[in-house]
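User: I'm new to structure prediction. If I give you an amino acid sequence, what do you actually give back? Let's try with this one:
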Amino acid sequence: MRVTAIVDDALPLPATSSRPAPPGTATSVTAIRTALPPYRYAQEDLTEAIGDLCLPSGADRALLRRLHASAGVRTRHLALPIERYTDLGDFGRSNDAWLAAGLELGEEALAGALRDAGLGPADVDLLVCTSITGIAAPSLDARLAGRLGLRPDVKRLPVFGLGCVAGAAGLARLHDYLRGHPGDTAVLLSIELCSLTLQRRDASRANLVAGALFGDGAAALVARGGGGAGPGGAGPLVVATRSRLYPDTERLLGWDIGPTGFRVVIDAGVPDIVRDHLGRHLRAFLAEYGLTTDDIGSWVCHPGGPKVLATVADTLGLPGGALNTAWHSLATVGNMSSASVLHILRETWESHRPEPGTWGLLLAMGPGFCSEVVLLRW
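Assistant: Good question. You get back a string of structure tokens that encode the predicted 3D arrangement of the chain. For your 378 residues, that looks like this:
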């Protein structure tokens, strides 16, 4: 399906209230922890197994093999051993597996991030928990609260529907909250088990692309208000954020939900939307703070796939190597939906930490179709 033409280009960019944070109101990222399932596979070892799950017996596998070879993925982690996926059968079993594995990974990521920040569960004032690969009521955050020992009065916000953009949007909403509660500690927890949404006996191109690209994992980010680093040390400061929802693009990316669960929708027009609109909106956002893309020394971009990453770099005129950490993340763990951009921010912090004072930009895109950008200062 091709998307309807976007009509907002002739309109002026709207006024915004997101101005640079005055001293003392920036948000400090104090820790990030990623948790990956123990079942790690080389891409070539998954190709035929996924073909067995998705394709009819005797079907031509040429397209499947091309997609796996061109996905930019070398290894991925799965929530279950690959041989167990044939036994899932229906949405109920897949969702049960998501709940069991998601709680384990979520607990590992959240507990680890709090330790790294020098904090305990009782220090958490707000927990935002995002996942688009399963559903539960009580939600994951409610189930984790007792396991981890969060306070009974902890504020909780479970989020479903943002998909890949939720890592960036979640950090932006933590920043919004902490500007109004500068003495608080807020946590973003992403739990994405994408492999459990793979549709058996579905040979559609979208399902095969998802089977070639997505991996499983969780990530937790701890942030404090008022620009205070806390006992665990300081990561980047969140200075400002911007959301953009593109009209008439609802069928570009998302789920069709039916008896077998979440059937992926991925339109080939995603790179075209990025090329036609992301650069203009992002440059306008930076200009409000007296910045250009040349001033950004650290790029943290969600790895939507090879075509998306290449289009982002080309559209923004980025220097060679600007998105290397995103490419490396895609190669080593695949696209982990909302957890990926947090994983890449952690890798940037730990392995490629920019010099103090460097401007950074974190960005992601997701269903809607939408984008979210977060201006950082290291």
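You can read the tokens as a compact description of the fold. Here is one thing that stands out. Residues 137 and 143 are 9 Å apart (CA to CA).
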